[in-house]
Amino acid sequence: MELWFSELHTPNVKFSIKADRQLYAGRSEFQRIDIFDSKEFGRFLTLDGYMMLTEKDEFIYHEMITHVPLCVNPDTRDVLVIGGGDGGTVRELVRYPGIRHIDLVEIDELVVEVCRKYLPQTAGCLSDKRVAIHYEDGLKFVRHAKDAYDLIIVDSTDPFGPGEGLFTKEFYGNCYKALHADGIMVNQHESPFYTQDAYAMQRAHKRIVSSFPISRVYQAHIPTYPSGHWLFGFAAKKRHPVKDVDFAHWNALGLKTRYYNTQLHAGAFALPNYVEEMLRDVEP
Ligand code: SAM
Question: Going by C-beta distance under 8 Å and a sequence separation of 6 or more, which residues neighbour residue 207?
Answer without folding.
Answer: 167, 168, 169, 172
